[in-house]
Amino acid sequence: MSDQHDPASESATATPAKGNRRNFMFKIGAGLVGIGGLLVAAPILGYVFAPAFSNWEKRRSWIDLGGVKQFPVGETVLAIYKNPIFGPTAGEANEIPCWVRRKSETEFQIFYINCAHLGCPVHWFEESKLFMCPCHGGVYYEDGSRASGPPPRGLFEYDWQVVRDKLYVYGGELPNLQIPGKTPKDDITPLTIDGVGYLGGKEVKTS
Amino acid sequence: MMSSIKTAWTWIDDRTGIMQMLGPPLKHHVPRNAKWWYVFGSCTLLFFTIQVVTGICLALVYAPSGDSAYDSLLYLDYVVPGGWMLRAIHAWSSNAMVFMMLVHMTQVFLHGAFKFPREMTWIFGVALMLTTLALAFTGQVMRWDSDAYWGVGIGASMMGRIPFIGGWLTHLILGGPIIGGDTLSRFFSLHVFILPGAMIGLIGGHLMLVLRHGISEEPKKGGPGEFVDKATYRAAYKERMKKHGVPFFPDAAQRDMVFCGIMLIVLVVVAAWYGPIGPSPRPDPANILVNPRPDFPFLWIFAILALLTPTIEDYLIIVAAPVVLMVLFLVPFLAGTGSRLASSRPIASLSVVLLITGLLVLSWLGVTSPWSPHMSAWTSDAVPPVFVKGRTPLQLQGALVLQHSQCRNCHSLDGLGGKRGPELGDVASRLSRDQIIRQVQQGDGNMPAFGKNLTAAETDALAAFLYSCHPPGVQPATRPGAQIKQLIELDKARANN
Q: Which pLDDT score, from 0 to 100, does residue A1 have?
């Protein structure tokens, strides 16, 4: 290749051999950039989309809501627990409220605070025995079933168990119509106290 | 002195080629009749610029961290000199940007400026609208107050309506299984990096297209460019600009400058007068005594979601919203040629009237939200004296049951109380005593059943009280509808007075 060679006319006068070499180089270049790009993109996409693919059900856990004596039979009261899955900057957003209804000596219902319509916090009214939502006016009966307004279903409920006279709630997720609050039986991890596992208030074998 | 500045400028211009670059866009010819209707786009861009500048300033102090964002807002408002004013300008300029964008879009639509060959300009515009709304929503989350917390919750619940991938999407936007610090960080990245970046790229494209196709003339009956014909429009437009066009700078830009100047003054006055928006109570979900409301660009959605029946709500969120967006994108292909005159396009003009009326009415309903129970009405709104005077002991007892059972949260007496259910001050003129008892016990329509929660004595007293609630001169109902004639006469008498 001489110094006087005009680059503009190069492509027109290039011999097939030269063209093939350039073509080859281009293919190698595209391949390398492609592989390198994928190698860089994989950790980035993994990092951004990780929350969507994590099995949060497996990471939920049992949280102590206190002695059962705190919950009078026949009453519904507000309880607050710290969400078990949290980052270092969660702050006060990690204080999760829930409504605890003690149906009888041994039976509880624990409702998520979130309205089944669009997630606003429902209030309990002792006198009329109704939950009311301040956003769009959803209303629920004492047992969490839908009474009126736009909610398509009753209140979401938590899994719970009573172990050694303490009420435990299975916390860790924000429910919506696709994430129905209760955890599939196979995904629930037992509560472990002093090396003994508990599920449904009964001792179970822990793996 | 002047000559040395001139020499320096000539040198800079020669070495950078700045005028060669800026000259053609500034001097490009625009229609002579492109006057005051054409200032809204520039003004939207101005507000975006203000958002960028004030946003960078706010980021000097604001902490995008779940445990300190709220406190950094208070710090901005009360300690940092001028911090409150910067927050106020950022918030009001955001509202102004959304508003101005809608005005610009309406003008473009009514003048048929989206028609051939400017289809892509419109499509970029719709993408800009979506980005602007996304910035407004993520900006509301930046406040990280109770409205932001529950606002994100509403977003997550809407994701839950989408079949199959709803749960996946929920965790993606929350950055975890529940609203927390990672949620705020995600929205911060969107609000401060991703969306503004997208916005700047889209604005670049939008402006490039404006230069490529030129600004369309204001359509006038029999005027140039009234009809768009693909075969002739481009050449004819080019010819007209050559003959009658005026340079954008300064001929058209001067109007932009006047309007933008006025808007800047209005913005600063409004920001100084009304101050920053929010924050509402702390983002503590355990504080459930809150009344979550979205910012103004989303009040209409808030209203729609309250007014729909549960059966069609899912279809609206999953099907109708994407369809409406598709139609917006496809507008230039549905009506790409023909007359640009609004008066010759009845469907287009009527849809604008319908849309604007709908948005205004729904937004107003969102402000008043009559569907929301008044959570404290049962203790804060007393029974007006007129409903107590001359009542029997049983009826008075019934008034107590009415208060104590939270009926007033949804029902008003003389306009005082919740508006979710019908006014009870004249209920006896509509329902007989038996019907009142049935309604209370079994509920109906949108009313919960109180049968299990009220004793027989309480129900009896409540019915006695409610049956005494009728306008003077109207007998209480003995069977449904019997009082209609009386009510009509009463209305007539009132009208005559």
A: 40
